[in-house]
Amino acid sequence: MKIISIANRKGGVGKTVISANLTYELSKMGYLVLMVDLDSQCDLSKIYVQGDYEGGSIFHLLRQQCSLDNACLEVGENLYLIPGSRDIVHFDFRGSEGILLHYLRNERLEEVDFVIIDHPPALSESALAGFVASDEVVVVSDAEAFSVANLGQLLDDLAHIQKVMNRDLHILGILVNKIDHRRKLTKVMVEEVYNSFGNSVFRASVGYDSAIPTAIRKGVPVRKLAWHSRVLGQIRHLTKEVIERLGMANGNG
Ligand SMILES: Nc1ncnc2c1ncn2[C@@H]1O[C@H](COP(=O)(O)OP(=O)(O)OP(=O)(O)O)[C@@H](O)[C@H]1O
Ligand SMILES: [Mg+2]
């Protein structure tokens, strides 16, 4: 099992969109996948769970108010979700940063191939618990000037987290999302990311595409839209590169 954090302290860069779609593509390739919504905004959960949800959530699990089985909601073939909770901000992680690791490394999850954790837009206590639980981090960035300028600082912070909290944490790669080829400045920003971070940047990137907000509005991953969007090919490319970087090809790609 590989546990992967999808993270950036910056908001709105596409962490949830990438979490939702990477996960869905992995499940379609035959991997058993569990998503964890660690963000109190619960956006990932809104994509996969329609209407009011009263069942077990990450907060209930952390508070030992529900079992792991009850917190894992089946949301598709090969696809499970531990739903988010806005109450997670009230959970005191101090002294129990390893609590998520404890739950996710449970023998009841031994069949799971991938756990994908959608992070909140901060290096909050819950995010630290996410990094402690993870093997890998996918950093999602957009191609805006502030985002690119902040990437170096974020990698320094992740290096510190590695040093003091989880020596096994590895940066799988930086994904550049929302690339708008019509904007000259975007091209400059993307070049800057590749020049600054080299092979740490995924070869795959995701363009700015209205299919993404459309899919969010419908509460589906982009593959479920009625038409084949350009961005779907890019997400599949990313998924294959993730598997390739992990050396986990199953021949269904
Ligand atoms: N490739 C894309 N093309 C077009 N719109 C996108 C793309 N990626 C993300 N968006 C849009 O950007 C917004 C933010 O995306 P998302 O919620 O995934 O970001 P986030 O990093 O998870 O945000 P937060 O930090 O608030 O959790 C959404 O409205 C989404 O529709
Ligand atoms: Mg999000």
From TrEMBL:
CDD domains cross-referenced by the UniProt entry: ParAB_family (cd02042)
Annotated signal sequence range: none
InterPro entries, A to Z: AAA_dom, DNA_Partitioning_ATPase, P-loop_NTPase
Top-rank taxon: Bacteria
Ranges where the AAA domain occurs: 1-171
Gene3D superfamilies: P-loop containing nucleotide triphosphate hydrolases
Annotated protein name in UniProt: AAA domain-containing protein
